[in-house]
Design brief:
About 35% of the residues lie in helices and about 15% in strands. With about 450 residues, it is α/β, with parallel strands linked by helices.
Length: about 450
Amino acid sequence: MIAPEPESAPSIADLADQLASGALSARALLAACRDAVADRDGALHAMIALNPAAQAEAEAADRAAARGERLGPLHGIPVVVKDNIDVAGMPTTSGCIGLARAMPLRDAAVVTRLRAAGAVLVGKTNLSELSFEIRSRSSIGGDVLHPANPAVTPGGSSGGTAVAIVSGFALAGLGTDTGGSIRIPAAYTGLVGFRPAHGALPMAGIAPLAPSTDTVGPIARSVADLRVMLDALGHPVDARPHTGLRVGILRQAFGSDPAIAAALAPMLAQLAAGGVRVVDPVALPDDVLPLAGDHIVDAEFAEAFDAYLASNFAPGTAPASLAALVESGAHLPEYAAPLRARLARKGQSTAMILADHDRLSAAMTDLLATAGVDVLLFPTSQVVPRSLDNPKGGWAPELAARSGWPAISVPSGACIDGLPVGIELTGPAGSEALLLALAHHIEALSR
């Protein structure tokens, strides 16, 4: 099942109003989500665990409504979180069987914020084990399957969160994004995914992959729902009109599949026809493109994950170190070699890698100035998925990751072989209002 189009589905804001007024029961809404999990997840593998406290959370929202109290912008709204994000009382597995009993000491900071906003946590979602890939396969949950075509991946590493939302298990959710892991599954499933600027949201209580590029952010059914999630997370973005925006089309990032460019052509023509100034093409210098060389994940993962294991869990519930996890063999077998390779790099200097990131960021900033544009536009992925293997999605999502810029993926309204094609927009920190305004305009044009 694919989620209803935003115009036909009640928004989070509307539902929260009904829940807070007592016109709708949080218990009934949670029950509908749980029924959807029971009916569909056996064939999709989006969920790793259901929250045993969810019923109590929904009942608390209903009691507050009966007293005339509104808990916050997510009053009674069912949400899911990726299972590399801590929820007190539930293991944080990162999809890895060796972490099946890893009990966090407390909620992640972002989960605390969701709870304070009134959210009801349905459960935790499947992912690419340890967040390593842009498919979603784990030794605990298996492959997350695409609701529109179970023979292909919905992307990753936050694929479980995306599939849970399009399947009606929750109305929105959290993923993490180090090099595209929110934006890619959002694009492949027809959702909206937002990667905040690096450091805009706290990463405390979240399994690290590469701290220099790790982010946490929302996936939602619409830009309006995404905006409410950002408010709840303490990262509000002002509304503004799209008119007058200047957009640079980064053709370098379109890839070699002519079907991708053809799929996006109608939307680009609509943008150029009114309200938005389109500069097509714009280009970055070839020598700064993220095409090859050392990756920050390879350099930072082992040291960051060791520190996480040492400080994040109740004693005796998690492996003492990454080396111990590797030696146990309690992980996907195909991860043995990459895990050992990353262990071997523990403690090595990251200075040259980060210097390349700085060069890319400077070139992106220069491009906006010289081309006279506010944001860059390109496909979220250079392909649509064709199997359960890692899709060859291209380097475009690395632009935001390595520069630290915020980025959003929004459906283009086009499909290839029945699968949605996403548009990514990115701009420097401080351009979030522009990104959401343009994404909302694209969303409206695609209906």
